[in-house]
Design a protein that fits this description.
The complex is a heterodimer of chains A (312) and B (415). By secondary structure, chain A is of the alpha/beta class. Chain A has two domains: 132 residues, Rossmann fold; 151 residues, Aspartate/ornithine carbamoyltransferase (Rossmann fold, 3-Layer(aba) Sandwich). In chain A, 38% of the residues lie in helices and 14% in strands. Chain A has twelve helices and nine strands. The longest helix of chain A is centred in the last third of the chain and has 21 residues. Chain A starts with 15 loop residues before the first helix and ends with a helix. Chain B has 415 residues and is an alpha/beta fold. Chain B has two domains: 100 residues, Urease, subunit C, domain 1 (Roll), CATH 2.30.40; 301 residues, Alpha-Beta Barrel (TIM Barrel), CATH 3.20.20. Chain B is 31% helix and 24% strand. Chain B contains 13 helices and 18 strands. In chain B, helix 7 packs parallel to helix 8. The longest helix of chain B has 17 residues. Chain B starts with a strand and ends with a strand.
């Protein structure tokens, strides 16, 4: 298939076929990372800019490694070291990066829709590495890749996402992505963390976590942010953990082969108990490994194109 | 000097709806006649057109002093004249805030120099609109203020709002409420609902508006002070106002064309031109607002004309300023839902009554007149706007109906 997308902005705008194609490409890319010499010349001469307005360890490192394994030249920019501190607007910053003939700009931003705004104003391909509370498409793709690898399929699987759905871009991208590939999605958390109209994204919800996880094939735990205490979303870490934390106790009532996922960073003991995070059911580190593969695939698809790989 | 408006459909609800001629001498109407008037005068052919008492936009932001890069009093009144408005009420959230005689007089003088649409300044309720102390309403009224409002910000302190309503009564000043409960708004940037959920934007619940509408109604009931609710956007607010009117509380209300022409879906694609406060709401609310307009709960259509430059709008949605410019699209957007008589009620008769201005066709009354071509078809092109700003979500819309002449006290300011 021809992959014609200039930008990877959200799961919403990716079709069923495009998602499958990205995952298939990622499967191939994974092998490169397992070689002793983990580098191919595919994106040699391509310029990739990491533009992170918001803190990130996993995603940024993952993109950086992905770009380098494909031999691209990459540069990192953060809000604090860029002209943003001098009051330059996002569009101006992006246009300047574009004027240097960069091929791909990878952006993380605290404002929902920021990558979309940039994409309208530049020639370079934009990859969304997380925008506000909107989407985090590469996270959903690596999660899909991980589940497909472990379960052999996505369709008909039951996914439970637990935690702060309202503020989570990971949840939004995963709900959309898993639904597109035929899974069922149920979310659970306290009322303030279940956004209005969540059904329109295709997910059902329950305030009872055990109901959400009892027949789930996959349980995805979300990181709980401490600042949610100040807007009265939940009363205390203690009560949150008791009601919506994944403990060994709750795990007793789930399927035996359930996969436990977490996008990180993990609050051990709050949303997930340490024993579970480190257990055999946990695929948290597989997610991280696959993150590199998925990002290699996306960089290759938007910047490389099929011709380049054939010539390698 | 004589001016003769010929053969227009002259409508002054509920009294007049006839094809007639209107003769104006200097600034006053001296004859209205179904028979053709024949005399030596400047002739305005109004056949096939609507001749209405002058339109008033009782809620605009002219941005001067302080934000002249968005709009000036001069560009604002040129835009208003072009849009059919004979008068506008300028909100006080300029820089500095219009909370004193000097600023009020400055606005009046500037608009007099422009010699277009009349500007009636709305002064602040509290000094600096910061909700801590009352402004000098006596002095402000003398200087030309027609009403008071902290528009742009709610009056958080209920005691201050109570005192404002009481004290304004001495001067018969209308108190205009910007109804918003900021704790409920939180960091919200658009209507709470599935569109916000989809876009990952923080939502603003309906109750953030209606809770303050209800409080201010209670304070109007307590004090007997005249209260006007600005920019009504929710079903719950409409219900509260309807109920208050039934109980005889002196409350009136306005909405803006965007609240019945658009829902929060206009925000999709992170369209900052659809970012406004209160936010665009759901279809349910749109229907309630329309019902409120039709049963008289909502008295007025005002535009909340809020010019912003690209500096405020071509940015991340969260950071973008709230506001839509409204004057140049107000008549056709309203005519989509209201018949012409109803339109004249909402944009001329009712605002004039609420503000204590006169808009009527009687011999001897001032010639404040708006002539409308109800069949004028056009495509909205923000590049051609007379306003200094371009922030409209209606660009590219096909609309019908436009003011073709605006007359302020006998003087043609547009047409």
């Amino acid at each position: 298939m021809q992959f014609n997308k200039k930008d990877i902005l959200d799961m919403e705008s990716l079709s069923f076929d495009e998602i499958q194609f990205i995952l298939d490409t990622a499967d191939k890319m994974k092998e490169i990372s397992q070689r002793p010499i983990k580098k191919v010349p595919t994106l040699r001469g391509k310029t990739i800019i990491h533009f992170f307005y918001e803190a990130s360890t996993r995603t940024k490192t993952s993109f950086d490694i992905a770009a380098k394994r494909l031999s691209a030249d990459c540069f990192s920019l953060s809000a604090t070291t860029s002209s943003v501190v001098k009051g330059e607007t996002l569009i101006d910053t992006a246009k300047n990066l574009d004027a240097m003939n960069s091929d791909v700009i990878i952006i993380r931003h605290s404002a929902s829709g920021a990558p979309h705004l940039i994409a309208k104003n530049v020639k370079a391909s934009i990859i969304n590495a997380g925008d506000g509370m909107h989407e985090h498409p590469t996270q959903a793709l690596l999660d899909l890749m991980t589940v497909r690898e472990k379960k052999g399929k996505i369709e008909t699987l039951k996914l439970a996402i637990i935690g702060d759905i309202s503020h989570s871009r990971v949840a939004r991208s995963n709900i959309i992505g898993f639904k597109k590939l035929g899974a069922e999605v149920k979310v659970s958390g306290p009322p303030a963390m279940i956004p209005k109209g969540i059904e329109s994204l295709g997910a059902t919800y329950t305030f009872d976590m055990s109901e959400a996880i009892s027949d789930a094939d996959i349980i995805m735990m979300l990181r709980i942010q401490k600042e949610r205490l100040s807007d009265f979303s939940y009363p205390s870490d203690r009560e949150y953990s008791r009601l919506y934390g994944l403990s060994m106790d709750k795990l007793k009532y789930t399927k035996k082969d359930v996969l436990i996922m977490h996008p990180g960073p993990v609050n051990r003991g709050l949303e997930i108990s340490p024993e579970i995070a480190d257990s055999d059911s946990s695929v948290i580190l597989d997610q991280v490994e696959n993150g590199v593969a998925v990002r290699m695939a996306l960089l290759y698809l938007v910047a490389g194109g099929v011709r380049n790989v054939d010539s390698n | 000097m004589l001016t003769l408006i010929k053969r227009g459909r002259v409508i002054d609800p509920p009294y007049l709806d006839i094809i007639s001629d209107i003769l104006i001498e200097d600034n006053k109407i001296i004859d209205i006649s179904e028979k053709e008037i024949d005399c030596f005068a400047k002739i305005i052919d109004a056949s096939g057109k609507i001749v209405a008492p002058g339109f008033i936009d009782m809620h605009v932001h002219l941005r001067e002093p302080g934000f002249e890069y968005k709009e000036t009093i001069e560009t604002g009144v040129i835009s208003a004249s072009y849009s059919g408005f004979t008068a506008v009420c300028a909100m006080p959230n300029t820089s500095p805030i219009n909370d004193n005689r000097t600023i009020t007089e400055y606005i009046v003088n500037k608009s007099n120099i422009a010699q277009k649409t009349k500007v009636y300044p709305v002064a602040a309720i509290s000094k600096g609109s910061n909700g801590e102390s009352l402004c000098e309403y006596g002095d402000l009224k003398d200087a030309g203020a027609i009403a008071i409002s902290d528009d742009g910000r709610p009056v958080k302190n209920s005691q201050l709002m109570r005192r404002a309503l009481e004290y304004a009564k001495i001067f018969d000043l209308l108190v205009i409420s910007h109804a918003e409960e900021l704790d409920l708004v939180g960091n919200g940037v658009m209507n709470e609902g599935f569109v916000a959920t989809k876009l990952g934007l923080a939502g603003i619940p309906n109750a953030s508006e209606s809770i303050m509408v209800m409080r201010d109604i209670a304070l109007s009931e307590l004090t007997g002070g005249r209260l006007h609710i600005a920019h009504v956007s929710t079903k719950e607010s409409v219900n509260a106002i309807r109920d208050a009117k039934k109980r005889g509380i002196p409350v009136t209300a306005e909405t803006a064309p965007h609240y019945f022409n658009l829902t929060d879906e206009a925000v999709l694609q992170y369209n900052t031109n659809a970012k406004v406060n209160p936010p665009l709401r759901s279809q349910n609310d749109v229907e309630a607002v329309l019902e409120g307009l039709s049963d008289g709960t909502i008295d007025v259509i005002a535009t909340d004309h809020a010019p912003h430059s690209s500096v405020e709008k071509d940015v991340e949605f969260n950071m973008a300023a709230n506001g839509i410019i409204g004057m140049e699209t107000a008549i056709p957007l309203s005519l989509k839902f209201l018949d012409i008589k109803n339109l004249i009620e909402k944009m001329s008769k009712n605002p004039s009554k609420i503000l204590g201005l006169k808009r009527e066709f009687k011999i001897g009354s001032y010639a404040d007149i708006t002539i409308i071509d109800p069949n004028f078809n056009f495509i909205v092109d923000s590049k051609t706007f007379k306003s200094k700003s371009r922030n409209t979500p209606f660009n590219g819309w096909k609309l019908k109906g436009k003011a073709i002449l605006t007359m302020v006290e006998g003087k043609i300011v547009y047409g």
